[in-house]
Amino acid sequence: KEPWLNPRRKGSILHRTFDRFMSGREDRLREEDRSKLMRVLKETAKEEAKRVYPGTEATFEEALRELENCAHLFFRSELRRSGQITPLRHEWEFGYGDNRQNGDGDAFPLRLEDGVLPVRGKIDRIDQKKDGTLAVWDYKTGSQTSFSREDPLKEGQKIQWALYALVLNQYSEEDVTESGYFFTSEKEMGARLAFE
To answer: Rounded to an integer, what is the distance from CA 27 to the centroid of its chain?
Structure first.
């Protein structure tokens, strides 16, 4: 039987938590903001537990501890980067139009050398760096073993980071100088894998 905190549910809870915590922030993070993040996480996890019952209170508490460890890693990383970047957008969708529920709508027309590729997706995080350029981040709850600094596209198997950077560059007409992944798991200790 699959555990209640499966990878999909874990990612969903963390994405919603990070979005709720970071959206609308204009000031620098301070250590005392950590408790707010933990409150948001607990509320989000409880919402999910109401939607899909975890089976027992002990199962929920164990899952919450694992989620809290990930959230602490996220907070530590954000605290370190605070003042160096300005978070601009979270969970930014492109190519869906107004009809997100049924998948209709105009896909984003990504211009390539050989034509146009219609795409849609959701960028977890867009930051503005001190030099005014943009950075794109995708949150990953798993391992970075399938990713490589030496072969960032993995022969066409890992194009998400590059695709997102191209879409944002063409949509915003601003320079995107960094794109990559933030690994929220305890195993990866909040590592970031960025490509320029």
So the answer is: 20
Distance, CA of 164 to CA of 161 (rounded, Å): 5
Q: Indicate the DSSP class of residue 46.
A: H
CA distance 19 to 30: 18
Joined together, the tokens standing for residue 67 give 């989620």
What confidence tier does 154 reach under pLDDT thresholds 50, 70, 90?
A: low
The CB-side HSE value for 76 (13 A sphere, CA atoms) comes to: 14
Cβ distance 60 to 12 under 8 Å? no
Query: Model confidence over 102-115: pLDDT tens digits?
Result: 555 688 999 999 99
Both tokens assigned to 1: 């039987």
| Contact (Cβ atoms closer than 8 angstroms) between residue 123 and residue 168 | yes
Average per-residue pLDDT for the chain: 88
CA proximity to 6, closest of 68, 58, 73, 66: 66
